[in-house]
Amino acid sequence: MINNKYLTVLLSFTFLISCSPKLSSVLVKDYQSLAYDEEVVVFDIDEDIPEEFEQIGVLKARDTGFSVKCNYEIVLDKAKLEARKAGGNAIKITMHKKPDFWSTCHRIDAIILKTPIKYNK
């Protein structure tokens, strides 16, 4: 018989995980992760990517169906974190869907980018 305390912890953990937007990424190049405080430059949909940037992967942020903490800033922060894990120091937003009838979350697609030089936007 499962102890009620353990069941409560398991259900709470499951609920907390399902409250965040789901991020998935596909990498085409393998780099060492960046530090958690390393700057990640964000290029919006209408901005061009400078030549010195190399594409190292793509990422998608989607609603899990139970997501509640998924305003644009939070989704963007999670995308930057995913880019850092992949070794990228920039992302280019390629698609942004705002909350609508189907989802209360912002959803984005982005390209993970890397440049060897310090880039100031």
List the defining traits of the structure above.
alpha+beta, five-stranded mixed β-sheet, 28% strand, globular
Structure in a nutshell:
This protein has 121 residues and is of the alpha+beta class. The chain contains two helices and five strands. It is globular and about 40 Å long.
Question: How does this structure look, described?
Answer:
- This is Lipoprotein.
- The chain is of the alpha+beta class and 121 residues long.
- It has one domain (4-114).
- The protein is 25% helix and 28% strand.
- It has 2 helices and 5 strands, in the order H-E-E-E-H-E-E.
- It has helices at 4-18, 72-86; strands at 22-27, 41-43, 54-62, 90-97, 107-114.
- Strands 1-3-5-4-2 form a 5-stranded mixed sheet, covered by helices on one side.
- The radius of gyration is 17 Å and the shape is globular.
- The N and C termini lie far apart (58 Å).
- Residues 7-18 have low confidence and may be disordered.
